[in-house]
Amino acid sequence: MRGADPAVVRDALSTADPLPGTAGFAGELDGRLVRDVLGRQPIFFDTFSPDSDRPAWSYDPEDLIEPTLLPAGHTLRLDGDDSETDTVGDAPLDRTESVWTLPDRDPGEYDESVARVEAAVLESVREVDAERLAVAFSGGIDSALVASGVPDAPCYVVGFPGCHDIAAAEAAADAMGRELRVVELTHEALERAVPEVVHATGRRNPMDVNIVLPLYLLAEAVAADGYDRLAVGQGADELFGGYAKVAEAADDPRVEAETVRGATHEMIGTLAEQLPRDVLALRHAGVEPVAPLLHDRVVDAALDLPGEALVSDGTRKVALRAAGEGVVPESVAGADKKAVQYGSYVSRELDRLARQAGFKRRMENHVGQYIESLL
């Protein structure tokens, strides 16, 4: 079992508690595979097992012939007769079961809810073990809070020279008195890494590749410096209303919900799809991700936030910024943050490489065609 004591998971199964106080888990328990409600630990199975009727499984899809990701919040029974049963993907219906879903609560009172978030966030970032740990640092409130909990860990930022993330990280590190190591990217590094991230994640669409590339190249540098764990701010945008489409939910067609709170819960639901991509890429680069903002206590507190504690007067992540007051400098707590693929210029430069290789913007999915040409 990865991520939690088996006794805790066993109790969570018996009580159907989706948030039993862990940072995510997956593994085999009492003849079943289990995966936590947010899918923070990916686990794969393969019903084709030449030496056994029992499905093979692994944390690494490369170990399996036809790997299938176990859905978040599900269990898969490993033993049993599968004759004359329907299937979901490769998994027989009588073997799979949805056991955990996130609670759908009424919003809490503003001050109390924000205070709960502050307590949960600070406890989670401060309990991180700093041994052989580095911090992925972009200069925004997410990574600054994570860094605040491990004051002796080095901070790393990745990007092309002159990019937003490097400038923001340098300013934030200076304000916080932190050591910052800059991983400067090149076109050659992107071209080399594209096939590697596709191989590691199994994904080749431009959006996924653009998101993973800077994380992967930063993690390589971290591993080369002798660190094997990387603290990241994953989950902050989803939990705390960090997306423009959430702030503008009433008018933005990219979300189905019409309220900030509804759109935030919609974004939380996307984590199960995103996290395996990032976890697999970081592990392939040689580091284990540590995501304190995705601890159950933080998720539990975030679910109670009213809409105005998520977005207010155009300011996003209101409650998370409040948690940073007095912990990180005001200039950092209020700083704007760009998505990593844009803030690092990776998306811009991958597009440039595609056009230089003859894949013009007038062509359908020109960056996707370029990615395919590198594989």
From TrEMBL:
SUPFAM superfamilies per the UniProt record, alphabetical: Adenine nucleotide alpha hydrolases-like (SSF52402)
Coiled coil (UniProt feature): none
Signal sequence range: none
Asparagine synthetase domain segment(s): 122-250, 273-358
A molecular function GO annotation: ATP binding
Record keywords: ATP-binding, Nucleotide-binding
Matching PANTHER family: ASPARAGINE SYNTHETASE, ASPARAGINE SYNTHETASE [GLUTAMINE-HYDROLYZING]
Protein name per its UniProtKB record: Asparagine synthase C-terminal domain-containing protein
